[in-house]
Design goal:
The complex is a heterotrimer of chains A (551), B (446) and C (325). Chain A has 551 residues and is mainly alpha-helical. Chain A has 22 helices and 2 strands. Chain A folds into 4 domains: 1-51, no CATH class; 52-235, no CATH class; 242-299; 305-547, MetI-like (MetI-like fold, Orthogonal Bundle), CATH 1.10.3720. Chain A has helices at 3-12, 14-51, 66-72, 74-104, 110-139, 141-144, 152-163, 166-192, 198-235, 242-268, 271-299, 305-337, 343-355, 358-368, 376-383, 398-402, 413-439, 443-451, 456-485, 488-493, 505-514, 519-547; strands at 53-56, 58-62. The longest helix of chain A is centred in the first third of the chain and has 38 residues, at 14-51. By secondary structure, chain C is mostly helical. Helices cover 68% and strands 4% of the residues of chain C. Chain C has a two-stranded antiparallel ribbon with strand order 1-2. In chain C, a hairpin with a 6-residue loop joins strand 1 and strand 2. In chain C, helix 2 crosses helix 15 (289-324), helix 5 packs across helix 14 and helix 14 (273-281) crosses helix 15 (289-324). In chain C, 43% of the residues are buried. The chains are: A mainly alpha (551), B alpha/beta (446), C mainly alpha (325).
């Protein structure tokens, strides 16, 4: 009772208000944060855990990187090396920032802060370790209580059992000890050497420790797995040149990256210097390309052909839909932007395909592109005097159908139908966003151009398009990521007759989940897909992002 | 520390596998009173199967002395049921009785969710007494008795709707094409007639699809099989399988056959007199009859076994979709069995067989024309098909009851599609398939 | 206080380029309209034919006629019944005619319930979170926002199995607490709760909340209002447009959802309409295409009605997410 007025006074201060603001904010965030933790962040960690196991519906044995090896051959190991190295580099960069932070710190006893941070980071690693041991045990509870009526006491009993399972228990104790140590160290640091820099120093050193620990773990895992794979291969009398492949492929990629950097400097330089730089860049590109061409097929030799085929289909699907859908969307938006009547009506109608369910619209598309003579698509062909095609049932590539040589094969006709369907679905969405982007371009610019006597096309080319580039960038990023994740529209239009000719990577992964129940393997492939999407996003940000005119 | 992490991760592995101990379960003294039995079936609404099953369930619900209630849920065809079972096994929200083929049920049994029906069948208190068991057709029932490891004689399911993969011939078309008015005697003759149909203006060749069961019938017609029990391995690279696939390719290339798009379009085209032949489940006869009547097709057609290749003789593939009892409480399992036992009774079998045209699992009943109430199927057809099953000169084929078969089955259409499209030769593609199938066999059937 | 419209006008609007004179338009304008109308035909042609085909006989559909000879309204009755879309059983007292019980079931009813729960839940979860990100200062704000945004990049297929296992686990826990009614699997929680915290919604709302003038907050604070009151009495009334966008998007999302509900429902108690339609289309009986079309039309109509009602705010909202990227 006595404490209340004191509390009220304490909360009335600036510090107190800040505390309340912080607490309110966390309270506001709590539901969303909890749900995102449960359904956004935990799943990724758990899927990674699954991918390290043989796991069919229920967990089986730990297999290390075997699933990745199965998916990508030796490249699986190489990718993990890179991942570990990237994490190491990240940790090192954070360490450097930590050093600058320390140097600029007014406090000479900053090391206590760092020690506290390291302890906290270590405790976090121990907590992750504990978590990874606890989760699979806890996940088994539903199965254990299956033949009994679920009651609270039974559930709690099982929960208690999972916490005291030998491995989990040991890791839990270790974690508790680590946490205790970290709390003590932080308290000590804050109490003895408190300064303005304490917070950032502790946070930074903790994060550095965590990332460094994670990268060392990854590196060790990868090395151990690679050694094991090489030893296993040696037993059967084969040589597994993972190490040399790692070196050559890394060198190849490094050379190409360096060539790109030199090329960019070269085109800006003058005369002789320019010639030399471009020559060097060209040579490096050739060398890097040669290394990749020579080594990549060998590294991928043991990869899952169906997965690689899936990626190839995905790439064709992306190339066939994204540019078409963006250009038609832009065209429609540009026309809508002209002074016309019924703009709202057009905009509304174009958007309809985007909002209607695939299940419903796919039925119509199935009929339009049916193999029969009466199918609308075939009727249109017959007007042009072309024989009826089998459309969604046609595995043959357009190259085959047109009698082109093999290397021009391209996608199967069935995939093209799916591309048309997908394009049809998304054009309206693109057009609406382009329209908004067009609306953001200041009208004065057009006016000025018109006064200068510029024609329609030139205005479009030199004013509209550059100023629209952020929208183009955004839409192409969304569309490409979308094609790599595309699933329902393909799954729903595919037929048995075309086999795997329309199976993009995501469809193949889903098949492995649903038909073969290989959860571990499917998870590892899903991660490969994830890595690819991340890589593309980064690449697009780097390469395209620079060309975007932000005005 | 990271090393510790690794070691721990490795040490964790054995702890993860959890064995579902069922042991020597006994149902003596268990009380099934008041249980509710959830039954997932695949009989589409408005079908005579669904109606008959509903009538039988109603009769059981009102007449059984224990107050057991059966609730039926139509869950689509076998594919969707298998998909649903995947998540049901994960979640534990299992039905009590579920429809499925032996191979699918074997996969579920691997996860420990299937009850060994032998325990119930032979239970002194609840089972079927030996003298009555003598009236059951164990040729049909034993398709679900898995005699290989890890099942060791477990009876994973109970057959309840046996049908055949039969061969349809339109005699009028065969005659019109200039051949003798009878079904083809051999596979070679079949090909010849189909080619003549394909070359004619009036008709199309044989309607072909890339489905696995359909393909297996053609493999069997060549005297082969896709799995060899003796060597415990898939034999996709065997000469008979290659020959069957080459037959497909050849017929398509020579316009003797065509690939159809919509489900059941093969029998649909047959029913409107477009093709001389079609193949399909005998359960589809009502649909053909109905389609033919709607299209006013008056040609005479017959149902037979598959013509075998020269020297092989006729073959017939048996489809034995069954019902598996899934683990629940012992009371629920027992109550489910009592329903299954009721369905195996004389009256229920007579009603079921008479109304649906499926063959009975009992040998002591005879469906007469008076019992036969399936309105869309002439009784003569039922007799015709029953005759195939009773003919000892016809060799019987059924697909392997292995858990891996579900996954392998999914791979076959793609291989067929690849080969008929000319992307690979039959021998190469099948050899590759055999490697994949062997892998699945190792992984899933252990 | 700024009105709704003023806030909206702060958002970018379509400005017109300079009007061209009447004479030079004629041909180019005809061209523009021709292209735009072609676009209309392509965009809604399939729907128009879907409606037309839903009134046809089966053989008319098979021959892909453009229009039916007679309008077969009974296709709709048959489709509704066969596809189990909506069953309403009203029992009245035999003598008095007083309503005794009313039971509604079927996929449409399920989808309506699921949609309501997920839209309301999403609003309840996303609004405070977006508000916190937009208008409050707290430690770790940028880090948390970046973390939230980064989860948008993860492909759904990575999360499928963990989601399934998590939902099953939480369901068991909740069942042990609340009895069978607390189940998650094959019940509304599995179908809705994972979608409550939509990062997209949080992002959209935050963008809008950021535009609300700071003066309003200062004024409210002087009046003694805290964040919760400010959010409820000032921010929310101003945010009809983005909320409308979220509601529409949420409606579309849960009405169209197919793969996830396919995994977590095992009977018709909570199965939503897209799954119902998919089941109907792939059912074992030979395809009655005309009935499938009727069922599709029934599925699509609620979406279209909502879209027509909300389309102005909705397309604006969508457009804004795009230009801000």
């Amino acid at each position: 009772m006595v404490a209340l007025p004191t509390l009220a006074r304490a909360l009335g201060t600036r510090r107190g208000r800040l505390l309340i603001e912080n607490l309110t904010a966390y309270l506001f965030l709590a539901p969303a944060g909890l749900l995102i933790l449960l359904f956004g962040i935990f799943p990724v960690a758990f899927a990674f855990f699954v991918s390290l196991h043989r796991w069919r519906r229920f967990p089986d044995e730990y297999v290390g990187l075997a699933n990745y090896e199965k998916a990508l051959g030796n490249l699986g190991y190489i990718l993990f090396f890179w991942l570990a190295l990237i994490a190491l580099v990240g940790a090192a960069r954070m360490g450097r920032r930590l050093r600058t932070l320390l140097r600029n710190s007014s406090d000479h006893r900053g090391f206590a802060n760092i020690a506290a941070g390291v302890a906290a980071g270590y405790a976090a690693l121990l907590a992750i370790d504990w978590f990874f041991k606890l989760t699979p045990v806890i996940m088994l509870i539903p199965r254990q209580v299956r033949r009994q009526n679920t009651t609270l006491s039974l559930f709690m009993e099982k929960l208690g059992e999972s916490f005291t399972a030998p491995d989990v228990y040991a890791a839990g104790n270790l974690m508790l000890a680590g946490l205790l140590l970290a709390v003590l160290a932080i308290a000590l640091a804050l109490w003895r050497v408190r300064s303005v820099d304490s917070g950032p120093l502790i946070a930074f050193s903790a994060a550095t420790t965590g990332i460094a620990g994670g990268s060392v773990f990854l590196l060790q895992l990868t090395i151990a797995e690679t050694q094991a794979a090489i030893a296993a291969a040696r037993d059967t009398g084969e040589a597994l040149p993972i190490w040399s492949q790692l070196v050559f492929i890394s060198a190849g990629i490094a050379l190409i990256a360096a060539a790109w950097l030199i090329f960019r400097r070269g085109i800006r330089a003058y005369e002789n210097r320019r010639f030399v730089l471009l020559l060097v860049s060209g040579l490096m590109l050739a060398a890097g390309g040669y290394l990749l061409m020579a080594e990549a097929p060998a590294a991928l030799a043991a990869a899952d052909d169906d997965l690689l085929h899936g990626f190839w289909i995905t790439i064709m699907y992306a190339m066939g839909t994204v540019p078409v859908q963006l250009s038609i969307g832009l065209l429609l938006a540009y026309l809508l932007f002209q002074p016309i009547r019924f703009r709202a009506f057009f905009r509304m109608v174009y958007f309809i395909p985007y909002i209607t369910p695939f299940v419903a619209t796919s039925i119509v598309f199935r009929i339009i592109f049916d193999a029969g003579q009466h199918a609308p698509a075939n009727r249109i062909l017959s007007i042009a005097g072309i024989e009826p095609q089998r459309w969604i049932l046609e595995r043959s590539t357009i190259g085959d159908l047109l009698g082109l040589p093999d290397f021009l094969a391209g996608p199967s006709l069935a995939l093209i139908v799916i591309m048309i369907y997908s394009t049809w679905t998304y054009i309206g969405y693109d057009a609406v966003i382009f329209l908004a982007g067009l609306g953001n371009i200041p009208g004065e610019l057009y006016e000025a151009a018109r006064i200068d006597g510029a024609s329609g096309w030139r205005i479009f080319r030199h004013i509209t398009l550059p100023l629209l580039s952020p929208t183009v960038f955004f839409l192409s990023l969304v569309a490409i990521i979308g094609t790599f994740q595309a699933f329902t529209q393909i799954w729903i239009l595919r037929t048995g007759a075309v086999g795997n000719k329309v199976n993009t990577a995501s469809v193949y992964i889903f098949d492995e989940l649903q038909n073969s129940n290989r959860y571990g393997y499917a998870s590892s492939m899903a991660f490969v897909l994830f890595a690819l999407i991340l890589l593309m996003t980064l690449f697009q940000n780097r390469v395209m992002g620079r060309r975007v005119f932000y005005g | 520390m990271t090393r510790i992490l690794l070691v721990f991760l490795l040490a964790l592995a054995p702890g993860l596998s959890l064995v579902q101990a069922q042991g020597d379960m006994s149902y003596e003294g268990v009380d099934p009173s008041g249980q509710t039995v959830v039954y997932w079936h695949q009989y589409s609404d408005d079908s005579s199967q669904a109606e008959t099953m509903a009538a039988l369930v109603e009769d059981f619900n009102s007449s059984n002395e224990y107050g057991i209630t059966v609730e039926t849920i139509h869950q689509g065809s076998y594919g969707p049921i298998e998909d649903l079972m995947n998540t049901a096994i994960l979640s534990g929200e299992l039905p009590n009785l579920v429809a499925g083929y032996a191979n699918a049920v074997a996969g579920w049994a691997n996860e420990g969710v299937v009850v060994d029906i032998n325990l119930l069948l032979n239970s002194p208190e609840w089972g079927i007494p030996p003298e009555e068991q003598a009236n059951l057709n164990f040729n049909l029932l034993n398709v679900n008795q898995l005699d290989f490891p890890p099942f060791y004689g477990m009876r994973v399911a109970w057959a309840n709707q046996n049908s055949l993969h039969v061969f349809y011939t339109n005699l009028d078309i065969v005659e019109a094409l200039g051949f003798e008015r009878r079904p083809p005697a051999t596979l070679e003759e079949f090909e010849e007639i189909a080619c003549a149909a394909g070359a004619s203006d009036m008709y199309q060749g044989y309607p072909l699809d890339t489905g696995t069961s359909h393909f297996e019938s053609f493999v069997a017609a060549h005297g082969g099989a896709i799995f060899d029990g003796a060597s415990d391995s898939y034999i996709f690279e065997s000469a008979e399988v290659v020959a069957a696939l080459e037959l497909f390719t050849r017929m398509l290339d020579n316009n003797c056959a065509y690939l159809y798009a919509e489900r059941f379009q093969n029998t649909g085209d047959f029913a409107i007199g477009l093709t001389p032949f079609a193949a399909g489940s005998s359960a589809g006869i009502p649909f053909i009859t109905w389609d033919a009547a709607t299209a006013e097709m008056t040609d005479e057609w017959v149902v037979t076994a598959f013509p075998g290749a020269e020297g092989v003789g006729d073959i017939i593939q048996l489809f034995v979709p069954s019902q598996a009892i899934l683990t629940g409480t012992p009371e629920a399992e027992l109550a489910t069995w009592l329903f299954v036992k009721y369905l195996a009774g004389k009256d229920a079998q007579l009603a079921w067989s008479g109304a649906t045209g499926y063959f009975s699992i009992r040998t002591d009943i005879q469906v007469t024309e008076a019992d036969f109430t399936e309105p869309r199927m002439p009784f003569a057809r039922f007799v015709e098909v029953s005759g195939i099953l009773g003919d000892d000169s016809i060799s019987v084929y059924s697909s392997p009851g292995l858990p891996s078969y579900s996954a392998v089955r999914g791979l076959v259409p793609n291989v067929i599609a690849e080969v008929i499209n000319g992307d690979a030769t039959a021998a190469d593609a099948l050899a590759e398939l055999n490697v994949e199938a062997a892998e699945l066999h190792d992984e899933l059937d252990a | 206080m700024a009105s709704d419209a003023e806030i909206l006008s702060a958002a970018p609007n379509h400005r017109q380029p300079v009007e061209t004179s009447r004479k030079e338009i004629s041909w180019s304008r005809i061209g523009i309209y021709a292209v735009l109308f072609a676009g209309v035909v392509i965009a809604i042609g399939p729907f128009l034919w879907m409606i037309s085909a839903s009134f046809m006989t089966l053989s008319e559909v098979n021959l892909t006629r453009l229009l039916p000879e007679n309008l077969l309204w009974e296709n709709y009755a048959t489709a509704l019944r066969r596809a189990n879309f909506l069953n309403i059983e009203i029992t009245t007292h035999p003598q008095t005619g007083v309503l005794q019980s009313l039971s509604i079931s079927g996929y449409i009813w399920n989808s309506v319930r699921i949609t309501l729960i997920s839209v309301l839940g999403s609003l309840a979860v996303c609004i405070p979170a977006a508000y916190a990100f937009a208008r409050m200062n707290f430690i770790g704000r940028n880090f948390l926002f970046a973390l939230f945004l980064s989860t948008m990049m993860i492909p759904g297929i990575v999360m499928l199995i963990p989601h399934l296992l998590t939902v099953i686990w939480l369901g068991r826990l909740s069942e042990s607490l609340f009895g069978p009614a607390g189940a998650w699997f094959n019940n509304w929680p599995a179908l809705t709760i994972p979608f409550f915290a939509s990062v997209f919604n949080i992002f959209l709302l935050r963008q809008f909340f950021l535009q609300i003038p700071a003066d309003l907050w200062e004024a409210a604070r002087i009046d003694g209002a805290g964040h919760p009151r400010f959010l409820i009495s000032v921010v929310l009334p101003l945010s009809k447009a983005p909320i409308m966008t979220i509601v529409t998007l949420g409606f579309i999302g849960s009405w169209n959802a197919l793969m996830w509900p396919l995994l977590v429902t095992i009977n018709d108690e909570w199965r939503p309409i897209a799954v119902g339609l998919s089941n109907f289309v792939t059912a074992d009986t030979p395809g009655d295409l005309n009935l499938q079309m009727a069922a599709s039309v029934i599925t699509v109509i609620p979406i279209l009605v909502l879209y027509f009602l909300a389309q102005k705010q909705f397309t604006e909202g969508i457009a804004q997410t795009g230009i801000r990227g």
